[in-house]
Amino acid sequence: MGITVYLVVCLLGAALGKQFQFHNNLGQTIWVGSLGNAGVAAPNNGGFQLNAGAEKYPVLRGYLNTRAPTAAKKAPGHRLGSVVHWCYPFLTNKRTLNLQETVTTADNWAGRFWARTGCRFDGNGIGPCDTGDCGNKLQCAGAGGVPPVSLAEFTLNGYGGVDYYDLSLVDGFNVPVQVIPLTKSVDPNNKYGCGSATCTAYLNNNCPNELRETNSAGATVGCKSACLAFNTDQYCCRGNFGTPQTCTPSTWSQNYPAYFKNNCPGAYSYAYDDVSSTYTCQDSGYKIIFG
């Protein structure tokens, strides 16, 4: 009976939240970072390790209590408090399902996930990363990733009660990434309605030399945007170029966003690339694939 109750409670808890499944197909360990809107906690305090071939399932949930029950921390299982439900990891024969409670307000999380590469953390979770570093910490805890980095961005329960999501290469690229809705079919009349946002090309290999990000060994680990590389008003779509009408890469002396857009048509290649880069869905969880 106890086991039955435990499973029911865990499944119920998962249903009350927004589930994100993370998959690492890169062939190397990565460290996922996350940053959310103010006052809303991020999964795993903003960071976790994801081994090659691994899958991780944190759940964003909607409760106001900011403290975990002590008993739930010490043992697998669950504890039901007045406002907090907890489900803890258990092992299957294929993968670890890590249903991670995060203390958020329901259905209004907005934020981003990214992969960090080449990290060298010590036993305390302190150390640098080649790409996506968030202050030399395993758990980013409110810090964003240093570009160039590929971003999976979400606004849950946004305008009209739908989720908005996209892939952004506005600040550059470090690894391929995909966002795939879990429970919805693509709208046959609109590929951006519950469609898959994908960037599967590895852009570092053919990145223009002037945009390359290299590590201490001289290897190319990222591809910068023109804004990041040159920091001009024109390339950054600011000042006199701060509107969709005045920020037009096709008129630049070098159309750098075209390299990103041609290889990853469903991702943002510059700040005003909204029309061909924004996806919406409703009542769905999401799979995020790196690699």
Automatic annotation (TrEMBL):
Cystine pairs annotated here are 119-129, 134-140, 194-281, 199-264, 207-223, 227-236, 237-247
Residues making up the signal peptide according to the UniProt record: 1-17
Q: Which SUPFAM superfamilies match?
A: Osmotin, thaumatin-like protein
Q: Which organism is it from?
A: Timema bartmani
What Pfam families does this protein map onto? Answer: Thaumatin (PF00314)
InterPro entries (UniProt xref): Osmotin/thaumatin-like_sf, Thaumatin
The record ties this protein, via PROSITE patterns, to: THAUMATIN_2
Q: What is this protein called?
A: Thaumatin-like protein
The alphabetical list of record keywords is:
Disulfide bond, Signal
What superkingdom heads the lineage?
A: Eukaryota
Ranked from the top, the taxonomy reads: Eukaryota, Metazoa, Ecdysozoa, Arthropoda, Hexapoda
